[in-house]
Structure formats: C-alpha cells, structure tokens
Amino acid sequence: MDSTKERMSCVRVFASIALFMIFTWGCTIGRVYIGSEIRNDPKEKVQVGLTTKSDILSIFGPPDRVTHQYDGDIFVYAFLRKNSTKFVIEEPYITNTTFFTYTRIQEKKDHLVILFDKNGVVKNYGYQRGTSELTTF
Amino acid sequence: MFLTGCIIGRYYEGPKIAEEKIKDIKPGITTKEEIISWFGPPQNYLSPTIFNQVLRELDVTREPINYYPFANILSYQFNQGNVRAVVLILFNYVEGKVKSDHLVIFMDENDRVKYYGFYKGTDELR
Questions:
Q1: Whose CA is closest to A60, among A35, A81, A26?
Q2: To the nearest whole percent, how much of chain B has pLDDT over 70?
Q3: Residues of B29-55 as b/e, b for ≥16 C-beta within 10 angstroms?
Q4: How confident is the model at residue B49 (pLDDT cuts 50, 70, 90)?
Q5: Is residue A15 part of a domain?
Q6: Which of residues 68-127 of A touch B (CB under 8 A)?
Q7: Segments in chain B forming alpha helices (H)
Q8: Do residue B63 and residue A65 have CB atoms under 8 angstroms apart?
C-alpha cells in the first residue's frame, strides 16, 4: 500500500516537472553605458565669474556638445545609462502563447550644462545626476 | 541554469588620436595647419558618423554624441564599443559600453590654438 502511494507521489512529481518544462520562462538584463562619467563635481570645481573655458576643458575634458549664443558659448557634458529588465513566461511549443511579460527600461543621464559669457568665463551652470536614480531591476 | 553561450563584440570607429602630439599643442603658438598635419582632417568637417546613425537607429541617443558645427572648433574622436553577453537557459545578461578618446581644439581669430581639451575614455574599457 505504501509502495503504491510512493509510486503515485513520484508520478505526480514527474507530471508536475513535465508540465513545468512545457513553459519557458526567462529573464534578460541589459546594461548600456554611453560616454564617460562626469569626472568632477561641478559644485566643488566651478566658480561662477571666476572659472574660465580653459579651466573647464582641463577639469571636465572636451564637451559632448558646444552651442554658440550671441552672448557666449554653452558646453554640454552627458553620460548616458540605460538599464533594461525583461521577464517572460511563455509556452513556445504547442500554443506559442506568451502568458506574462514584464519589461522595465530606465534611461538616465548625468547632465552638465555650463554657460560662458563673451570673455569665456563661467556665467552659470546646471548639473543633474540622473544615473543615481537607476534601480537594479 | 546551464551556461549555453557567451558573446563578445568589439566595435572601433575613427582614426586613433596621435597622443604623443598632444603635449606639443601650445595655446597661442600652434597653428591650425600644424594641428591638421598632426591629427589629420577634423571630424566635425565630415558628415555625421555611422556610429551616431547607429545609436539613433537603436534609439540609444536621439542626438549625435559629438558634433561641433563651428569652424573655430576642431574635434577628433575615436570611439570604441564593447559588448558582452552571457546567454543561459533561463537568464541572459547583456552589457554594452561605448567610450571615446576625444580631442577638441578651439582656434582664435588668427587660426592659432586658443585652448584645448583631451580625454582618453577608452581606458575605462580595460
């Protein structure tokens, strides 16, 4: 009697595993990094009315973008990160059905914009550290 | 979870920047002709690169990474992209990194170097 129960239990376990294996589930994690991190904290290194364009180039390196304006140039620095997570449960063999999909894409940027006056001295700047808002999943 | 595959990709774009010449750049002395003879034609005189077009196609960035449409700025850039992926049965991990060596030179009204900046971003890929 006990052996029959054990056999039934084994069958149930194998049936569950077989059923389980019909479904495919998978997780994909993606990471993209474009550019270099902004190397210094502008709050510590940049002084409005004192820091020059030459100082900025030696502190932060070449900007990613330069815009000319009638009252001076603008330097733009950016570091972009993209995190993506995807979780899928599907049955690809018989019904080719996707039961569940979870996708999360986060695109964040560290962004520094420095405004110069006509003499090449920093007039103002803006800094946003967006990549700190990224979560793992 | 069994290891089923591993993917490694490398992408290089643009001429390498002659780093040994960077120390010879002297603001107020070095001329535009010297810069062009040392580093070749600046890339901002060329059309937007294939690399920027690919990034736009893939919706990674909507704007070109580097583009200076001004005659008094000379820009040189070498891009390197590394892709690596681990493909398992239940889990995949894909990582892409794009870094650049970038030299930008501002010229004055007499076509001499006013100031310049250089950063070797590809070192971060090691």
A1: A35
A2: 75
A3: ebebebbeebbeebbbeeeebebbeeb
A4: low
A5: no
A6: 68, 80, 82
A7: 32-39, 50-57
A8: yes
pLDDT for A59? 94
Closest residue to A29, CB basis, from B73, B93, B97? B93
Q: What is the pLDDT of residues A15-45, one digit of tens each?
A: 777 666 667 778 999 999 998 999 889 999 9
Report how many domains make up chain A.
1
pLDDT over threshold 60, residue B45: no
Which of chain A's residues have a Cβ under 8 Å away from the Cβ of B115? Answer: 53-54, 57
> Which residue ranges make up each domain of chain B?
3-125
Domain range enclosing A48? 24-133
Quick check: B70 and A33 CB within 8 A? no
The C-alpha of A86 sits at a distance from chain B's nearest C-alpha, in angstroms, of 10
For chains A and B, CB pairs below 8 A equal 87
Residue with token string 């800094």: A127
Q: Is residue A9 part of a domain?
A: no
> Which candidate from B70, B115, B121 shows the least CB-CB separation from A57?
B115
DSSP H/E element including A44 = helix A42-45
Q: For position B48, what pLDDT does the model report?
A: 46
Banded pLDDT at A115 (limits 50, 70, 90): very high
Residue B60 has its nearest CB partner, among A29, A32, A62, at A32
- The shortest CB-CB distance from B118 to any of A33, A61, A65 is to A61
- For A90, which residue in chain B has the nearest alpha carbon? B90
Does residue A84 register a pLDDT over 80?
Answer: yes
Output the pLDDT for position A62.
92
Q: Are B98 and B64 in contact (CB under 8 A)?
A: no
